[in-house]
């Protein structure tokens, strides 16, 4: 949760530590799961991010319908959400408009469209809300099927990528959606989804987690490292970084860097 709060604000571990009066090593240890935060530390972190601590009941147990739904790919779920037939070569106008919009840059699904990627819907979407987080939308117009929102700050810094053939759109992971006031009514279900994806993640034929269920920061971290390797314009990541996520199934960032030819 601490990592999710920090990414939501786009802070580094040092920035979070400076804002809360906590040592950066404490922040790193908590995020890596090596220690538990005290209540004072947790309250300080939440207050610095403009959030409040709430006590809630455990999330409900997943239904059989939800488990079947979450074992489908994100692209499959998006196809269903817009009312198209999965596996078909022909897509409807809503899919095609969303695909065309994805060419303009980093598009993130908003509102009911984001919720439809994590929870089953009885009826397909009649309109999709999207936005371009952190930048101006320029001259991109809205249509009756696709509503383009002004730039907003409610999205996480690392949305999960959803493939639209040769293009991609992003969607906040369920744990991030649960933090948004607009989804307060769906918070228990979203927390249930987040737990299922963590504990019962779908795997590929090799037994590895499929891309839709990996930590959403994977793509951003890989892009950062490759940019560093190619252009040398950014500081190298810390080899001692042993966060809980993996890069292409290596146990640590150090192992990943070594496999891609970085000097020891």
The first-to-last residue Cα distance is: 33 Å
> Biggest sheet: strands side by side, in what order?
1-2-3
- Summarize the biggest pleated sheet: 3 strands, mixed
> Which spans have pLDDT < 50 for at least 5 consecutive residues?
211-217, 242-251
Rg over CA atoms, rounded to whole Å, is 19 Å
- Beta-strand residue percentage: 5-15%
Beta strand count: 5
| Pattern of helices and strands | HHHHHHHEHEEEEHHHH
Coarse morphology: globular
**Average pLDDT level:** 75
Tell me roughly what share of residues is in helical segments: 25-40%
Number of helices: 12
Quickly give the structural class. mainly alpha
Keyphrases for this structure?
mainly alpha; 8% strand; two-stranded antiparallel ribbon; 264 residues; three-stranded mixed β-sheet
